[in-house]
Amino acid sequence: MASNATAGHNCPSPMKATSSGLFQGDSPLDYALPLAILQICLVVALTRGLAVLLRLLRQPRVVAEIIGGILLGPSVLGRSKSYLEAIFPPKSHTVLDTLANIGLLFFLFLAGLEIDPKALRQTGKTALAIAVAGIAFPFALGIGSSILLRATISKGVNASAFLIFIGVALSITAFPVLAPAAVNDVAAWILLALAVALSGSNTSPVVSLWVFLSGCAFVICLALTVPPVFKWMADRCHDGEPVEETYICAILAIVLAAGFVTDAIGIHSMFGAFVVGVLFPKEGPFAHALVEKVEDLVSGLFLPLYFVSSGLKTNVATIQGLQSWGLLCLVIFTACIGKIVGTVVVSLSCKVPFREAVALGFLMNTKGLVELIVLNIGKDRKVN
């Protein structure tokens, strides 16, 4: 009896990297590299095909990637157990998640490149007021929603971390080129770092405090050390001349190193990559060349893997019953109304024309990958 029970709970054996080929009797689906290649090809083909179809409805590619992740997961195609065991077996999830998170690191670096600290310091009173309302009002509504969610479907989770995770997920904006949204995002990432610090397995508040203070020290050290290095590199890159490969490799290595440090601290590795992007100089050809070399590979190949990785953890079929649908509607309503109403009311009080205030409210309500990242971190940390 004991031996049968033990055998039934064995973890899947690790996969070898490469096979010897079909003629040697090896199935490529049993090995990590060929299976990862098949998964990537399937993901790219499906998401690109959906993007072409959804372009007719004027939908961005990110919508196609989100839908593609859900279709490939247990919600649709994953209802077939044979499909999941063959194409996305549990033993392959570690490789898939690793590739997806490497892509995510560089995506957050590129997102940080869109935020200019100098522009944030010059943000006017109107933009600052709109930014504060855009994060404070939905965050406050998120507190109310989190209390209800924790009392129903998330019993026993860390209360403070859960509250901040839900608040950040509802208040962040996926539109950093707007001045209010950029201020909003910086505040949200700080809150997210706090939430990650609070969600550790060690429940001691001292440990959470050390994690948060170490994260602050990391940001300060990075702000004092890397900008001069970046400026030295940027000064040696001139218009019309190719950027040296050494500089590109050095920046990518710094991004990965920053991710390693924040992960070692206890904050998600993407936070370090984001900070490096924010500190990177925005002027000159160096930033443009760096984006040109990194963006296509990250957004076209690696980033769709993150949506599939998320889709494999999501099963919309589990939303059953009046309570589940009611809570879903509550979260959607809270997320949208908090952003739109808060932004519109403050915009009107700052004498912004009504049409522009409404347009700004809907722009500030833009959701995307960043919200999915927040929710996935919460899920991985067993907070939601």
Automatic annotation (TrEMBL):
Stretches that traverse the bilayer: 31-50, 62-78, 98-115, 127-149, 161-179, 186-201, 207-226, 247-280, 300-318, 325-346, 358-378
Domain of life where this protein originates: Eukaryota
Coiled coil: none
Main location: membrane
Keyword Calcium tagged: no
Membrane topology: Multi-pass membrane protein
InterPro entries: Cation/H_exchanger_TM, CPA2_transporter, Na+/solute_symporter_sf
Key words, A-Z: Ion transport, Membrane, Potassium, Potassium transport, Transmembrane, Transmembrane helix, Transport
Domain Cation/H+ exchanger transmembrane per the UniProt entry, residue ranges: 44-382
Record-stated family: Belongs to the monovalent cation:proton antiporter 2 (CPA2) transporter (TC 2.A.37) family. CHX (TC 2.A.37.4) subfamily.
Protein name (record): Cation/H+ exchanger transmembrane domain-containing protein
Protein species of origin: Hibiscus sabdariffa (roselle)
